[in-house]
Structures are given as structure tokens and as C-alpha cells.
């Protein structure tokens, strides 16, 4: 009997203690949880940036602080981000006279680069030009907007006030702005240092994030020596069989010891073998490069001087086109002209005229994060594919890129179908660019027809040939 009493007493005491723990521990636990959750992840935020390039594109954005900070610091890039033809373009200007382009008069006091003069001359000499602003569908500034790097001698100061004072500006509606360089050291953002408003932008090195489809136009980065009109033909005289050249993959350029764009170029020595893959970089650039030079600089500089760039360019199957400080590079057009298949390493770059050119037929699009796989990738390309890619480089160069005039006219042609599609007057059909282009004017807009002239391959030997009849012809 006494044993039973002791057992029940102990059981009762244990239950009371457990109840007290449950009642008293809850608030303490909640308090600890609350205190620890007030600044979640404070010590881990600093490590998020290096992991961002490897994040899945489908992964949702969970922290908007960095995005807001970039937008606040870069208003010219994000203002009008949602603009499309139907929302930021006045079609009534185009109804009476079709697609006509007006150039604002140039002032003597305004500094204009040779490249921008070539752009304006190409427009003025085209069938789109009109000297009458009342007949214009599109307006192009007489102010030089090509170089918006504040450290550049070509930079035009106080452009914001000058742009907004243009008589037909109207917050940029029906305006097209050309730009080759934006941002400056150290971030090289896509800010033009003035508000583009609702204007269309034809820009080199534009990112996919900033690119507004069917509104903006991605153009190639070209040098001031690029010819105004005409231009040299591609350097491919004949296709050799087999199509392999002396080198498999080449590159020669600046290394960028620090800052944006340096990651990939600093790693090229891991792939370079000085035999069929020759990737040369030099540390000798910038005013204070010696302050940042590392143990490889002396060796890299010496090897850099041993090779002639032109000889490499014309004797390589593939040419590496890594990003520079900005996403675009002069190497892109140089490779196309030389019939050296571009291997593009510039993550996030909206390739030139991407809405009308299928770049998978004219280049190898790589990934900066997978640099070490590039040698095996280019070596695995079949010889028939190499022949096709090489021939396509010549077609693209001569059709779109060999002169400033062709780049400008292609820019206008790319923007014009966007205008026509929105007005509903005609629709375009995308077809393989290895075909021959013909154009028909209809309803004041351009319809591009791609007509294949390729003959079917001959039948294998020893097999019966079929007869094909078309339109009454055998």
C-alpha cells in the first residue's frame, strides 16, 4: 500500500514538473526565436555575390535590396524598362509618310566623334531620311551619344539638359539613341548619364537584362577605323578540305589584372598550350598596371610579343571572344571578317541583331564559368559544321557588319518590322539566314523574304535517281 502511494506521488510530481517546463519554456523559446530572427542571415549576406553567377535562372529573387540599389544608382538604365512599341511609340507620326527619319541639326559648338558623324551620314544618305521633321516617324539626335564613359576624351558633358531641350524630344518618344560605350571605372554600368525616357536604344554591349525585345536594338562594338561605307569583303577565299587550320583556338588581348572583366582573362593561361591553342594576354595597359602585376606578367608579356595577331587570326579555326570591361569586344567583328569562327565568352550579352540573326549558325556560344571545357568543345565540332559556320561568318560580315552604313541601315530595318508588326500591316517570318534575302515594299513597310537557293545533295552512287518536276520543268 505504501509503495503504491509513493508511486502515485512521484508520478504526480513528475507531471507537475513537466507541465511547468512546458508552460515556462514556451515564451522563452519564442523570445529566443524572435531575437535570433530579427536579422536573419546577417553574417551570410556577404558571401552571396560569388554564388550568383551559378544560380539557376529559374531561381526567384529573394532579396530586392541589391536590385533597388542598382536602380537608384543607375536611373538611365531602368527608366522606361517596360517600354514596348505599343506603349512608348506614337504611330500617328508614321501613318502619312511611312518610315522616315529626321536628323536634328548639328551645332558648331557640339563635339561630334568621327564614328557618330559616320552614323549620321549613313542615315542622311539612306532612303529613310527626311529633312522635314513634320514628316518624320523617327528622330535621331545631332548630339553625340556614342561614348558615355566620363573618363573618355569623347565624352560630351551636360548632355542631359541638351537632350531635354530638343524641340521634338517629348520624353524620348519616337527617338532612337545610338551608344557604343556606357559607364566608367570601376563598374562600367549601362547608365548613359542622362534619362533616355521612352526612346529606343541601339546599343553595343547591351545585356539581356536591360534589352527590351522588339524595341531596343543590339549593335556590334566597332572601332573609329571602321569604314563609313563599302568596307572590305570577308577574308575567306576558298574552303579547304579538311577545314582545320594551323591553330585550333587563338586570342590576343589585354589581361585586366583587376576589376570587372578580369576573371575570365586571368584564367586563360589554364587553357593555353602554346601549340594548337594559343591564348595570349598582356599586363601592359592602363597607367598603373605595374602596381597590380603578378608573377605571371613578365612571362605573359614576353610570349605576347612573340606572336603576330594578324597571322594568328587568319590561321585559326576558332577565335576566342571573351568579354572585356564591357560585354562586347572588337574581337567579335575581327573574327567574323577573318572567317575565324567566334567562340563567345560573355555571359548575359545580347548578341548583335539577335532578333533577326540565329547566332548558333555563325558562332559558338560558350559559358564563362565553363572555360576549361572550351578546348574539348571546339575540338569536337564536326568538320561539316566547321565549314557551315565559317561560310556563315562571311555572309553575316558582308550583309550586316562590314561598314558603319550597313550597321546603321540594319539597325533601322530591325526596328521597322517591330513598328509594322505593331500596326498590324504585315507580319514577318523568321527563316534560316543562310538563304538569300529579297525585299518587297508593302504598305510603307519592309517585308523580308528569305529564298533558299541550295540544291538538294546528289544521291549516293549506285542508287537510282529520282526525277523532280516543278512548275512544268524537269
UniProtKB/TrEMBL annotation:
Q: Which UniProt keywords apply?
A: Signal
All copies of the Exostosin GT47 domain together span: 96-381
The answer to whether the entry has keyword Signal is: yes
| Ranges of biased composition (kind: Basic residues) | 30-41
The GO molecular function terms of this record are: acetylglucosaminyltransferase activity; glucuronosyltransferase activity
Lineage of the source organism? Eukaryota, Metazoa, Chordata, Craniata, Vertebrata
The text of the family note is: Belongs to the glycosyltransferase 47 family.
User: Which stretches of sequence are listed as region Disordered?
Assistant: 30-79
According to its UniProt entry, this protein's organism is Paramormyrops kingsleyae
The stretch of residues making up the signal peptide is 1-28
Q: Name one GO cellular component term.
A: Golgi apparatus
Biased composition, class Basic and acidic residues, residue ranges:
62-79
Protein name in UniProt: Exostosin glycosyltransferase 1b
Amino acid at each position: 500500500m505504501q509503495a503504491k502511494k509513493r508511486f502515485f506521488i512521484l508520478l504526480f510530481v513528475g507531471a507537475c514538473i513537466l507541465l511547468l517546463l512546458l508552460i515556462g519554456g514556451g515564451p522563452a523559446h519564442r523570445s529566443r526565436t524572435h531575437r535570433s530572427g530579427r536579422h536573419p542571415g546577417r553574417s551570410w549576406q556577404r558571401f552571396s555575390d560569388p554564388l550568383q553567377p551559378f544560380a539557376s535562372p529559374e531561381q526567384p529573387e529573394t532579396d530586392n535590396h541589391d536590385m533597388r540599389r542598382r536602380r537608384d544608382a543607375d536611373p538611365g538604365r531602368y527608366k522606361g524598362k517596360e517600354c514596348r512599341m505599343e506603349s512608348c511609340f506614337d504611330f500617328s507620326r508614321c501613318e502619312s509618310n511611312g518610315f522616315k527619319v529626321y536628323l536634328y541639326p548639328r551645332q558648331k559648338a557640339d563635339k561630334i566623334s568621327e564614328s557618330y558623324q559616320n552614323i549620321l551620314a549613313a542615315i542622311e544618305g539612306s532612303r529613310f531620311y527626311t529633312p522635314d521633321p513634320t514628316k518624320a516617324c523617327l528622330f535621331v539626335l545631332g548630339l553625340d551619344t556614342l561614348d558615355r564613359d566620363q573618363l573618355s576624351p569623347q565624352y560630351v558633358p551636360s548632355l542631359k539638359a541638351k537632350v531635354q531641350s530638343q524641340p521634338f524630344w517629348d520624353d524620348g518618344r519616337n527617338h532612337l539613341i545610338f551608344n557604343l560605350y556606357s559607364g566608367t571605372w570601376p563598374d562600367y554600368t549601362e547608365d548613359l548619364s542622362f534619362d533616355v525616357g521612352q526612346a529606343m536604344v541601339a546599343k553595343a554591349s547591351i545585356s539581356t537584362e536591360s534589352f527590351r525585345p522588339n524595341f531596343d536594338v543590339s549593335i556590334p562594338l566597332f572601332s573609329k577605323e571602321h569604314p563609313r561605307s563599302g568596307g572590305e569583303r570577308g577574308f575567306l577565299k576558298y574552303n579547304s578540305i579538311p577545314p582545320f587550320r594551323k591553330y585550333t583556338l587563338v586570342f590576343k588581348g589585354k589581361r585586366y589584372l583587376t576589376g570587372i572583366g578580369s576573371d575570365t582573362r586571368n584564367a586563360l593561361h589554364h587553357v593555353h598550350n602554346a601549340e594548337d591553342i594559343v591564348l595570349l594576354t598582356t599586363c601592359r595597359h592602363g597607367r598603373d598596371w605595374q602596381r597590380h602585376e603578378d608573377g605571371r606578367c613578365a612571362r605573359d608579356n614576353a610570349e605576347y610579343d612573340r606572336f603576330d595577331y594578324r597571322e594568328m587570326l587568319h590561321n585559326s579555326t576558332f577565335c576566342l571572344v571573351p568579354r572585356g570591361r564591357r560585354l562586347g569586344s572588337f574581337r567579335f567583328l575581327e573574327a567574323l571578317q577573318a572567317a575565324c569562327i567566334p567562340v563567345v565568352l560573355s555571359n548575359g550579352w545580347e548578341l548583335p541583331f539577335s532578333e533577326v540573326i540565329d547566332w548558333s549558325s555563325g558562332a559558338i556560344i560558350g559559358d564563362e564559368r565553363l572555360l576549361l571545357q572550351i578546348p574539348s568543345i571546339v575540338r569536337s565540332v564536326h568538320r561539316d559544321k566547321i565549314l557551315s559556320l565559317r561560310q556563315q561568318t562571311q555572309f553575316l560580315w558582308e550583309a550586316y557588319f562590314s561598314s558603319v552604313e550597313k550597321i546603321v541601315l540594319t539597325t533601322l530595318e530591325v526596328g521597322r518590322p517591330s513598328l509594322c508588326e505593331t500596326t498590324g500591316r504585315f507580319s514577318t517570318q523568321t527563316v534560316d539566314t543562310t538563304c538569300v534575302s529579297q525585299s518587297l515594299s508593302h504598305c510603307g513597310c519592309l517585308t523580308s523574304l528569305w529564298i533558299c537557293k541550295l540544291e538538294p545533295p546528289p544521291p549516293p552512287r549506285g542508287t537510282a535517281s529520282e526525277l523532280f518536276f516543278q512548275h512544268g520543268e524537269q
